[in-house]
Amino acid sequence: MPHRVVVPPSASILLIEDDPALSELLVEGLAQHGHRVEAAGDGNDALAAFEARDFDVVLTDLNVHGVNGLEICRTVVARRPDVPVLVLTGHGTLETAVSAIRAGAYDFLTKPIEIDGLLVAVNRALQHRAYREEIKRLRTALAASEGFDDLVGESAPMKRLYELLQKVAQSDASTLISGESGTGKELAARAIHQRGPRKDRPFIAINCAAMPEALLESELFGHARGAFTDAKTAKVGLFVQANGGTLFLDEVGDMPISLQPKLLRVLQERKVRPVGGSSETPIDVRVISATHRDLEEEVEERRFREDLYFRLNVIHVDLPPLRSRGSDVLLLAQKFLEHHAKRAGRAVLGLTPAAAEKLTAYSWPGNVRELQNCMERAVALTTHDRIAPDDLPAKVLNHQPSHVVVASDDPSELQSLEEVERRYILRVLEAVAGNKAVAARVLKLDRKTLYRKLAHYGVHRSASDDE
Fold first, then answer.
1. Which residues, given as ranges, of the chain have pLDDT below 70?
2. N or C end of the chain, less CB within 10 A?
3. Strands 175-178 and 36-40, how do they pair?
4. Domains and CATH numbers, the chain
């Protein structure tokens, strides 16, 4: 699920209001919801309190005795820019609002104000502050982060992954890396190679889904001169080129089934015969493969050989999707932002809290690759030194969570039965990494019914969905 920065349930609030009755009402209302409130009726007294104690939020009337609200706002922003200021006024004109925002106010509220509306504004301000603190922490963490080679992240799932990869690197067994597209499977494979005994030998990668069968066979195993029409010279295959090192078979689940027996034979006998050749070459190659497919389902549907699956899957490494990695979203966003800003010669320093909130609320179906593309786009388009929500793609900016509200007394939060079904089906599909066969089993629907519903929602079938 998308990560949310946690907002403390209780905050320390400095309230500056010279109307005693209103001040008492606001203090009581805020206190009833767990907040600690210190009230001041004079601007000078308020600034003295601000200097003496720590506050999470400042709530000030625009017109108070002594120092007025705008000056209080400027002082707070200058001395403690991390503390959001909410400005209250009985004169809600556009000019007044602009003045407050220019003075650095986070929000502008007009009187009369209901306590529920104030609580919403305070919570937004606290969340804004929490994101500012999180961004600051993550920038420091990024500078100090050792990660795991090119893999970056400090979340619990990534720390568990690093521990597993370190153990896998010391082994020579065939390893299958699974995970959604964009989770960094090749980076994990390279990390295993670089931390293992073969690190000084070749690491060669090939995408099994990127070329037709005949070309893939020739690339993997090589070919003899005259093996086919265009084979004017002999070609050494990747297995021989990787001898002593590591061969990474990316998207091995897309390998044509007619080619799979030859791969299985090479893995079993540790010898490779080029296409059209008569002799075999012994090889010493560690094979790491990767796929975004559910290979057990592919075996069940007879699209992947079971014996090859077991040969490749001696050790299994599953990469976590970005949506389950918490604040790693912001850590990676800052990394990509700095990289693309440096490459483009742009003075872009970081994220605004509002942009950070949008990034963490999004579910990232394209995972780390999608986030990197998002940051590259944002750096290219922004006109400021920090990425704002308007710099983000529309699907990130306008993302609506897939969770369904059912335990609410507010009719405006409730959904139609059709909308509940739509959100639930899409949530199940998201949870099973887009695997429609598994989703159909979870939902207890036959596949045709599921496909029909998904088509209605704008999610169309892929070739791999056909039996």
1. 1-9, 91-94, 138-147, 400-416, 419, 433, 458-467
2. C
3. unpaired
4. 12-142 (3.40.50.2300), 156-318 (3.40.50.300), 322-394 (1.10.8.60), 414-465 (1.10.10.60)
Q: How many CB atoms lie within 10 A of CB 420?
A: 14
Measured distance CA(304)–CA(255) in Å, rounded: 8
pTM: 0.65
How far is residue 244's CA from residue 239's CA, in Å, rounded to a whole number? 10
Listed in sequence order, the residues at least 6 apart from 193 whose beta carbon sits closer than 8 Å to its beta carbon are 169, 199, 203, 245, 246, 248, 286, 288
Tell me the C-alpha distance between 452 and 53, whole Å: 61
Using CA atoms, how far apart are residues 148 and 305, in angstroms rounded to an integer? 33
> Diameter of the chain by CA atoms?
98
- Give the chain's count of helices (H) and strands (E): 19, 16
Show the tokens assigned to 161: 């992954």
How many Å apart are CA 261 and CA 284, to the nearest integer? 19
Per residue in 15-71, pLDDT (tens digit) is 999 888 989 999 999 998 889 999 998 889 999 999 998 899 999 988 888 888 888
**List of residues 6+ apart from 167 with CB closer than 8 A:** none
DSSP run (H or E) holding 144: helix 115-144
Distance of CA 162 to the CA centre of its chain: 18
What is the C-alpha to C-alpha distance for residues 230 and 227, in angstroms, rounded to an integer? Answer: 8
Question: Do 378 and 358 contact (CB within 8 A), yes or no?
Answer: no
CA distance 170 to 166: 7
Helix, strand, coil percent content, the chain, rounded in steps of 5: 50, 15, 40
What length is written for the chain?
467
